[in-house]
Design a protein that fits this description.
The protein has about 350 residues and is an all-alpha fold. Helix content is about 75%, strand content about 0%.
């Protein structure tokens, strides 16, 4: 009976995390900023492909659920703690500060913090339970992906600007913009699906460590949980996500169809490749970097204070999640011990 209650609690919390991730999904912002979609259309399309794209995330689930903690299986108390940390940080951030935050950084910080602090109680856990090579690769991915995203987006946009100049007089600006909008729409759809695959792992990877799942077919369970996560992300995007999309689209940097296309070519390439290879990347990192890059190439004004605020949130998310995970772990483990779980 207790296993069932823990399972239901974990699924509800995973759904809440997925909902918060969807609320924080700004991937469609370039489409709105460039005038390709209305805010409502962008939200609807993003929601649809959030559900369809989750099934791309199997490799990322493995990285977060097994590789990061050396193939150990999180205990039920650890699972609940990680999910609780994510709910507190993500839901709190989305409702208080409508700026993008990385769900990937939150889950990695929470898992690492819980795994290390659990060593005070259980000898098989502790500082040696974390695979620091995997953690280093994840950190490098977070650092390099926005840098590469910036370089690729700026390069593509400079190339598109030269292309515009070379065909000047042969076609109207309106026809070129229409072509860019069609291409932008395609890349937005692909990137939204890929990001969903990457982000869904953040909410469901911990849940698959529950005892109730260990005697069942893990692949079947993973697909079911992915679908639940996808629905959660879609609802979060529809109900709250438009706030973050509007902020990023309207306040970060001015965009047009060609600059929007340039940014999304870069984002789509990086996020899709990372998802298929199992790297838990931050779509927020890559997208913001790509949008800043095209703003720089266009010499458009960039809201530096907003960029500073976003970067600070990236830096502090992991340590805050790790510390909060360690603190909450003691309380959750005590409760589980008292009730005999």
């Amino acid at each position: 009976m207790l296993d069932v209650l823990i399972f239901l609690l974990a699924v509800a919390m995973a759904f809440a995390v997925a909902f918060a991730a969807g609320s924080n999904d700004e991937m469609m912002a370039p489409g709105v900023a460039a005038g390709a979609f209305s805010l409502r259309t962008a939200v609807i399309l993003g929601a649809i492909f959030s559900v369809l794209g989750v099934f791309l995330g199997e490799a990322v689930v493995k990285t977060l659920g097994e590789d990061l903690v050396k193939d150990n299986i999180l205990t039920d108390a650890m699972v609940i703690t990680v999910l609780l940390v994510m709910v507190i940080i993500l839901v709190g951030h989305v409702t208080i500060i409508p700026l993008p935050i990385s769900t990937t950084q939150t889950v990695v910080g929470a898992i690492v913090g819980v795994a290390i602090v659990a060593g005070f109680t259980y000898p098989e856990w502790g500082i040696n339970a974390v695979d620091y090579w995997v953690l280093l690769l994840i950190f490098l991915g977070w650092i390099l992906s926005p840098i590469i995203g910036f370089i690729v987006a700026a390069t593509v946009h400079l190339w598109i600007q030269r292309l515009d100049e070379s065909v000047e007089g042969f076609t109207s600006r309106q026809k070129k913009d229409q072509a860019y909008i069609y291409a932008l729409g395609l890349f937005l759809i692909i990137s939204s699906a890929s990001r969903a695959g990457n982000d869904v792992a953040n909410s469901i990877a911990p849940v698959l460590g529950l005892n109730v799942f260990q005697s069942e077919a893990i692949t079947t369970n993973m697909w079911v949980m992915m679908l639940i996560g996808g629905v959660g992300m879609a609802l979060g995007l529809v109900i709250i996500g438009k706030i973050v999309i509007r902020v990023v689209a309207k306040e970060l940097v001015e965009m047009n169809p060609s600059s929007g296309l340039s940014s999304m070519i870069s984002v789509t390439f990086i996020i899709t490749l990372g998802t298929l290879l199992g790297f838990p990347l931050s779509g927020t990192h890559v997208l913001i970097a790509a949008m800043i890059a095209v703003g720089w190439a266009e010499r458009s004004p960039i809201q530096r204070q907003m960029v500073k605020t976003i970067v600070i949130s990236w830096i502090v998310t992991v340590p805050i999640a790790a510390i909060l995970g360690g603190v909450i772990w003691f309380g959750v483990d005590w409760i589980f011990t008292i009730v005999g779980i």
